Amino acid sequence: MARMATRQRVVVSTIGAWFFGFLIFFPILWMVLASFKTELEAFAIPPSFLFFHWTTENYATVQERSDYLLHAMNSIIIAGGSTLIALLIAIPAAWSMAFSPTKRTKDILLWMLSTKMMPPVGVLVPIYLIYKSFGLLDSRIGLVFILCLGNLPIVIWMLFTYFKEIPRDILEAARMDGATIGRELIYVLTPMAIPGLASTMLLNLILAWNEAFWTLNLSTSNAAPLTTFIASYSSPEGLFWAKLSAASTLAIAPILVLGWFSQKQLVRGLTFGAVK
Amino acid sequence: MKHVLGAVCGASCLLLAVPAMAETTLTIATVNNGDMIRMQGLTGEFTKKNPDISVKWVTLEENVLRQRVTTDIATKGGQFDVLTIGTYEVPIWAKKGWLVPLANLGADYDVADLLPKIKDAVSVDGKLYAAPFYGESSMVMYRTDLFDKAGLKMPENPTWDFVIDAAKKLTDKSAGVYGICLRGKAGWGENMAFLSAMANSYGARWFDEKWQPQFNTPEWKATLTTYVDLMKQAGPPGASSNGFNENLALFNAGKCAMWIDATVAASFVTNPKDSKVADKVGFALAPNTGLGKNANWLWAWSLAIPAGSKKAEAAEKFIAWATSKDYTKVVAAKEGWANVPPGTRTSLYQNPEYLKVAPFAKLTLASIDAADPNKPTVKPVPYVGVQYAAIPEFQGIGTQVGQQFSAALAGSMTVDAALTAAQSSTEREMKRAGYIK
């Protein structure tokens, strides 16, 4: 009897999970479907779900009109570069705050988070002027720099909480077994920190990939990432949903694939804890 | 191996460095409209004639472009050499010294050939600050088959009474056909473009001569009441979220008997590739109430040079090419006369080949001629602009008022409440900006 109940519960929760999963995934599915419609069908009311005239002409138009590879390459460099640099700065910072906190650590952490509370548009003009003076407008380095700074507080916070979960007793035990600092780092700490690092990296990568304020405002053509590529397909006078959907599908494809392959790390990282 | 690698690296560095010399690269910011995309595709024709100039395109969504370009131009960032802007920005930016006057468009440019109303809209104190790329007004597009069936005949210069009456007669909700489709989506360039133009035909105005907002006048009340009642009885469901594109899709799918919107839509609704009703569309002037003003606006997407550009000379060459008579010939040769950018030159409307393929040409021209940005409505006004007031504050004010009016259309607010809210929010903004005390 008890077994039946469990089974029923499993079935119900599975169906529930699929339902909510589908609900959340639906907008993306709709976008992908729209990218295979003609402009008129994409706008049709009532909309057709699967039974429409499938076409790939939107992808052909998008390929012909813009340089997808250039934009994708810029996105990879900007998102990847800003994530790597943010991690390089954040790991030692979070490490020191987690393992040798001082009485100001909490304040510092809060101060860092407070920088995220200001809307970016408030500093657009000063940053634009600084970038202009340093010749950083429309450069990949400039975008890497600003995205790195923007995400740094979140990266430090995430890593800090992960590092804090590592019990110090484990380090002590390693030391008692005669491990040097180097060995302690490589054999004890790193394996325990990897899931946390991986999920921080992935989250930061996704945030940087999707960032659409600074990337749109500080880039023109050479450094323009995929956000600009998408923004170029919206039209004030003329139907554009199908082409926009095709551009968006192309833009999210790389990060979607990456997320797919690394979802195990992501979930593990988000629920990570040495003693859980 | 190492040596080979070194040599390859060195050679590629040299290769990268060489072609940058002696070439001017223009960065052109534009919006994703069909005519602009066509211009992008024809860039080769320009660079063939000007081998020392190369062109880079930045296409952005209209509002993103406006924000992006405003930041750059206000900080003299110099990221763009040619901008695509509307008639709203030209007078404001020209007065701030943000635009380079276009004085060297060349001997064969023929400025006199530009449509006078359009030329006025992009000039300040008689100087041209932008060159019109395509111009538009608004007009009635209607289904001739539905009108014939109902025994109605659309006059060339209809009154609002006729349009309202016809819209009610032609509505057949069970068949999914609505008498009239109008903009309802909130925004200064969305529903307010239409409603400001409609208000002009009812004798209303945004501000009186002392910049006092006028939403508490009977003219505005008549405008908004008529609009909301008409849309409730004869408009499509969910009209408060419909903009140009939504109505275009509805009209093309055969769901609207009438649609009042940009003249540029005429070439879309008569294109059999996109429209189910391509051969059944007629055109008429935007309606009036007999006060001497029709409910039509005036707009021109234009090309201008920002004051921060270091390549103004090459930029002006490009602008002269893209807005010239020859450009229309290039487009006609490659894509047919129906696809040339409309609404900028008198000569186009005298060209028999264009008139043959563009049944809407005559009314487009008549509509443009009927709009006057310097005298937009019946009573005198202190501002320039038909469906907007060319002051920097208008974007914010217009969108705020647009939200109130959209709410009135959706039924979440009464007409009176919307007008009161519009009046007080506009008054507040105008006080803050120092126009009134």
Overview of the molecule:
Chain A is mainly α. Chain A has a single domain (66-270), classed as MetI-like fold, CATH 1.10.3720. Chain A is built from 13 helices and no strands. Chain B folds into 2 domains: 18-129 and 299-357, D-Maltodextrin-Binding Protein, domain 2; 137-297 and 373-432, D-Maltodextrin-Binding Protein, domain 2 (3-Layer(aba) Sandwich), CATH 3.40.190. In chain B, the strands form 2 sheets. In chain B, strands 1, 2, 3, 6, 7, 8 and 9 form a 7-stranded mixed β-sheet that branches. In chain B, α17 packs antiparallel against α18. The relative contact order of chain B is 0.17.
Structure described in brief:
Chain A is mainly α. Chain A has helices spanning 2-34, 39-43, 57-65, 68-99, 105-114, 124-133, 140-165, 168-176, 181-210, 214-218, 226-231, 241-261, 263-270. Chain B has two domains: 18-129 and 299-357, Periplasmic binding protein-like II (D-Maltodextrin-Binding Protein, domain 2, 3-Layer(aba) Sandwich), CATH 3.40.190.10; 137-297 and 373-432, D-Maltodextrin-Binding Protein, domain 2.
